[in-house]
Amino acid sequence: MTQFFRLSVRVVLLSVGLLAGTVFTSFAQLGVGRPVGRKIVDGIIVKVDNQIVLRSDLEGAYAQEVARAEGKPLPPDTQCRILQGMVLNKLMLAKAETDSVVVSDDKVKSELDRRMAYFVQQIGSEQKLEEYYHKPLRQLKEDLRPQVKEQLVQQEMQEQIAGKVTVTPREVKQYFNRIPKDSLPYFSTEVEVGQIIKFAQVNQKAKQATIAKLNELRARIQAGEDFATLAKQFSQDPGSAAEGGYLGFFKRHELVPEYEAAALRLEPGQMSPVVESQFGFHLIQLIERKGETFSTRHILLKPETGGNDVNEAATQLEKIRKRILSDSISFAKAAKDFSDDKSTSGNGGLLQNRADNSSYLPLDKIDPAIFFTIDTMKVGHITKPLPYRTDDGKDAMRIIWLKANRPPHQANLTDDYQKIAAAALNEKKNKALDEWFEKNRTGVFIDVDPQYADCKLLNSAL
Fold first, then answer.
1. What whole-number distance in Å separates Cα of residue 436 and Cα of residue 114?
2. Where's the PpiC domain (predicted)?
3. Taking the model in full, what pTM does it have?
């Protein structure tokens, strides 16, 4: 792949794991490795005021680039580019200190909870995660906290420097025309795929059992037991259970309406009756109000779903499918009106390529479950309802639509405008970062290990 579509290392390092809906980082990316009993020779290779870059930081980031390359050779200057991105990041942290740019502890906690919930969901349970890393969940969070806080500060600085940068269609065209014709990337087969999802509805028996269990816990708390202790024992919210159900501070409209409305009716220390939301059933305790924000803790229980509930979802989807096939409604309109998947319903049900925000997905990178479904489909066809489990573990059914199949081709403005626009925007943002670096690098102390002198780290252009 040419420079055309390689995201700048510095932007990747600043953004990793922080952008909503993008790829999440692993613990390895954040410096929390599984103990393997081997010693690593480490040392400081760059100092930027009070900030440092360790040799292990560089080696770890380089190993990630190698893994992402999937066997393809990396450009010879890759290590220098990575290190330059790290120096820029550390310069941002140093300037953030002098400019008093900070992120709140609550924001750090919220980001930690979000990542931890994802890790737990990926590995299967809190217990499996703790067993894998040989550490309790609380310790894993503490290990991650410094890196997460640094990344949030870097993100805030990057937003201040380049967040308002945009590109016009003329700039996109000019960017594309600057690329030598023999350097244009060649894209493999890409597809547009849509889906409509219906969650399995929880039957009344399961709902009542869950409500009864929460009312039992509520009675125990009213009788004197500690809310946080019971939350640790019973709550099914992986992001907050280990913290006694504590969610931290949120502003109005940042939590689901049912939860927020119930919380704001309480006085500090009071506990709500059972509250239902899209996530399940909650007991909520208001802890504190501070200006326009409030903090709570909760106990979340999720009712079990059964086969009959999935069958009802399948029945609803089959009716929707027949309407689409009879042309009484478009797939996009049906997705907007009926899909329970909010991440795709607003996009006409189409899955999004997070790398460039287009709706075209490389066939060799698509979810295997979808790949094997569409492999024998013709363009325009819609599957019958298929079983599906959401990322957060909900039972569901879905129908899949193969909207388009784009054959392999060389990049062009007509078919690949969104990709080209993303690359042009990335270049323009990097230019803004380079200009900021040139303007601010003389205001801080930077010391580079002689081993990396050839990287020209104090020059913005490598």
1. 31
2. 188-288, 291-401
3. 0.60
| Chain region(s) in the chain for CATH 3.10.50.40 | 189-201+306-407, 204-301
Bridge partner list, 54? 44
Q: Which fold has domain 189-201+306-407?
A: Chitinase A; domain 3 (3.10.50)
Residue 221 pLDDT greater than 90, yes or no: yes
Options 3.10.50.40, 3.40.50.2000, 3.40.50.720, 3.40.190.10; CATH for 204-301 is: 3.10.50.40
Q: Could you give the residue ranges of the DSSP H alpha helices within 293-387?
A: 307-325, 331-338, 342-345, 368-374
Model confidence at 153, in pLDDT bands (50, 70, 90)?
very high
Q: What is the mean pLDDT of the chain?
A: 85
Closest Cα to residue 285, out of 297, 301, 300? Answer: 297
What confidence score (pLDDT) does residue 36 get? 40
pLDDT tens profile 108-127: 888 888 888 778 777 777 78
Q: What is the pLDDT of residue 41?
A: 55
pLDDT band at residue 244 under the 50/70/90 scheme: very high
pLDDT, tens digit (0-9, with 9 covering 90-100), for 125-151: 778 888 888 888 888 888 899 989 999
The H or E element containing residue 246 is: strand 246-251
CA–chain centroid gap for 138, Å, is 21
In the chain, CATH 1.10.4030.10 sits at: 3-180+413-455
Residues across the chain: 462
Q: From the centroid of its chain, how far is CA 96?
A: 24
Other beta carbons within 10 Å of 449: 16
**Cα gap 299→234, rounded to integer Å:** 7
What the block records as the tokens of 156 is 């805030």
Question: What is the spatial distance between Cα 140 and Cα 324, in angstroms, rounded to a whole number?
Answer: 48
DSSP codes of every residue in 210-245: HHHHHHHHHHHHHTT--HHHHHHHH---TTTGGGTT
- Smallest CA-to-CA distance from 87 within 62, 51, 42, 43 is with 51
Which residue is it, tokens 């990337």? 185
4: pLDDT strictly greater than 70: no
Mean pLDDT of 288-304: 91
Give the DSSP letter string of 262-316: HHHTSPTT-B---EEETTEEEEEEEEEEETTEEEEEEEEE-PPP-HHHHHHHHHH
Query: CATH 1.10.4030.10: does it fit domain 3-180+413-455?
Result: yes
